[in-house]
Amino acid sequence: MKNDGPLAPALDAAAASENLLSVRVNQVRFEARAIQSYELVDPDGGQLPPFEAGAHIDVHLPNGLVRQYSICSDPAHRHHYVIGVLREESGRGGSRMLHERLHVQDSVRISAPRNNFRLRGGARKVLLLAGGIGVTPLKSMAHELERAGVDFELHYCAKDAACTAFRDEFANMAARGRVRYHFDAGVPGQGLDIGALLGTPLPDTHVYYCGPPGFMKACAASTLVWPAGAVHCEHFKAPVDSDPSREGATSQPSAGTFAIRLHSTGALVEVRPEQSMVDALQGAGVHVATSCSSGLCGTCKVRYRSGTIDHRDFILREDEQAEFLTACVSRATSAVVELDL
Ligand code: FES
Questions:
Q1: Burial 106-126 (b: 16+ CB within 10 A, else e)
Q2: Whole-number mean pLDDT of the chain?
Q3: Residue 244: is its pLDDT beyond 60?
Q4: Could you tell me if residue 7 is inside a domain?
Q5: Cα of 90 to ligand 1 centre, how many Å?
Q6: Domain containing 207 — which CATH number?
Q7: What pTM, to 2 d.p., does this model score?
Q8: Are 250 and 138 in contact, with CB atoms under 8 Å apart?
């Protein structure tokens, strides 16, 4: 995203080379058990680049880790981005580092917002289903839908009230039945009856859901009967794939050797079974930007011109997969795949 407008935040020299924004932490709030929100602002008080509901940013942590967080604030409010972060003790360390080391007044580098989970137009009613911290992209959608006057319900599933974030911000919507809480006391299936809510497709209605793996599975199973194009989801963790033919589909390369042909030069780059396309290209001096390295964010999306692809991402629609692949996780099943590089 270009940042040359008078209202855009300054880019420092290092950040500029990677097209990153330097922002300041203006506020850190305790939102719920193990959940803090971080309000990020332009250090000079300007507006931040626009974003659409459902967008996320990469946060570049001081130790080099890069983590994606959905922007949960109202897209109409350009003076800040707010992200909600669940501290995951068993995670890879990004959320722990944020909770422990990112404080008010600190500077942090972030990417411009990207969106793989945008609201589609044309729905008369929208159902938003959130599991735990999966509420963050749906919260920005709720703000957007509220302003647009679209009928919506946000079903927020959590263990209990103490684990439920943004309750003060949701208070008004909750009072009007727009936001509904479902607590399961930590026993899956005791809260919202997802099958009952989604079991019958509703006309002119779109469904959006985001949450932990079990929640995603339940929503996916219940929406199978819905028309294509009416159901949208975002994983915040690569799902564990139970299909053995897709072994390693979450993030690790596997299967056979193939070659990438670079369209610009015709050069061939071998991709060995233990390598991703990104790694093989990097070894050949061709840089493809990455972020999640799990097929979740779309940063490494590349157009391909020929070849048969084993798509292993969780974001591209079928029509997009006919044209693009995610080079961090996807493989070719043909001997050669020609990339638009
Ligand atoms: S880097 Fe996120 S999809 Fe490839």
A1: eebbbbbbbbbbbbeeebeeb
A2: 88
A3: no
A4: no
A5: 22
A6: 3.40.50.80
A7: 0.80
A8: no
